[in-house]
Known about the structure:
Number of helices: 6
Number of strands: 0
Strand content: under 5%
Oligomer: single chain
Mean pLDDT: 85
Amino acid sequence: MAFKGKPPGSGSGEMSRRTVALRPTIALPPRQRDEARRLRRAGHEPAQIAEAIGAPVEEVEKALVQMRMPRPETTRGTLNVTLAAHALVTKERQGNEPMWQTMDRMLDELLRHRAAEAARARRRSGDGADLPLFPEA
């Protein structure tokens, strides 16, 4: 199958020249830089790494600061909903409240309401059978 559209240029995937200009120069050879990054991924502290590879701590820190590290947990997620559900959440916003805060508040209200209804149903029926908070669909 032939490529449709304009193919990527010769410099695609490379770092922006502006980013390169803004980054400090690292006075470590590539082999030492890679070793420092490997040790950091293994959990070593910059001072330990500097001692292990025999380089100044400042240079090791410059090499490590440019590393990409996985975040242990995300702070936000994407909720894929219908346009009607999005409109409902938008309508429920209070002032300039962020959407995530609105969703958290709405879910909290829903769970409190379900818990209260379950408690009322138990009192009415007289037995202690628990009603599920999340009914099976």
